[in-house]
Amino acid sequence: MAFWSSTSVFTSKVPRKILFMFTLSLSVTYLFYSLMSCYNSLQFPLQENYVYQGRLVTEETTFVTLRDKLYSTSSQGFIDEELIEATDADRKITITTVKHNVETEQRTLEWVRTQASPTKAASVYHSTALEREHQDISTTDSELRVNCTSDYGEKKLPQAIIIGVKKGGTRALLEALRVHPDVRAVGNEPHFFDRNYERGLDWYRDLMPSTLEGQITMEKTPSYFVTNHAPKRIHSMARDIKLIIVVRNPVTRAISDYTQTLSKKPEIPTFEVLAFKNRTLGLIDASWSALRIGIYALHLESWMQYFPLSQMHFVSGERLIVDPAGEMAKVQDFLGLKRIVTDKHFYFNKTKGFPCLKKPEDSSTPRCLGKSKGRTHPKIDPDVIRRLHKFFKPFNMMFYQMTGQNFEWELEEGSDSNVSRD
User: Fold this and answer.
1) How far apart are CA 158 and CA 217, in angstroms?
2) d(CA 241, CA 239)
3) pLDDT tens by residue, 160-170
């Protein structure tokens, strides 16, 4: 009896243990292959990003070709020195990507070695899935990374950026766009792609306002247009991003730029002194930033290496003053927005010399830009203005050809440029 009793206990317990171990083995095997599948999908975008960041771009060759077409011998030395530069931040991004790959691989191998229990394995798998959700979108993809907020909407990387130019009318354009209910934009200039790139895309995204479905996230930093490494960096974030460039007669723009600097530093030399290397010989100092920014064709060449013209929209700073509704209609069309911002939103302020935005609900009281806008320009020697128009003319012609638009700046050569419009 004792024999049969012990045999009965053995036959009832052993199959249960075998069944449990078999089930556990299948579960661990399934989780292992699932994790390895996630690991492979996690690694590929990062490897793609590494290869992209390491891609050689023959910028120097393109710049030299453009300079040969446009520049005189007197200014070519400045272009070679100022606009061809190494980008240490790009190398930092590549190193960070490689380190990230190694850390991810180490986490996966550690899980394999521990052969975690089903409960612990599920916890690790869930953690890894969240990690993958955060990292899986390559910075070379057209999709933008998203971060949900606890209150409403999502924080997204921008789908459109106003990249330039300084003193062209970018603030006026941004404020007009912010009237549109489907546009959400940062008020301050983030300067991410020129000054804060090492902070990373998460830092950049956190600066953005939350958006709802169908809304566009935007920012504006006019210095991007003249920053040599900004096109590559923006392209690595989003290949299909839309770029808006507000341009203005380069001579008037330079005077407005100088006027702004003069208001902060009254001790600086006169405009005439800064504009020339040798006024007697008529040698223009193209190394002065106020003039260098206005060589639009050269800066545009850098952007066209990464983005097609179909993703760029050029706004006339002059037409933005005389016909703000017309320019806004074009911008809204470019962004794929309904034409909501119209002439009923603007009021022309004769004192400042540019349009102001009306307050909501058709209020008759306008909302104008701050005191820094609408300054009176200092009186500039007409001969200096004439020489600058002559200097910029071939560059303007090339810019017209590149964009397919004639901004008619040559018609303004004899006009009075003493009142700022930005």
Assistant:
1) 5
2) 6
3) 999 999 999 99
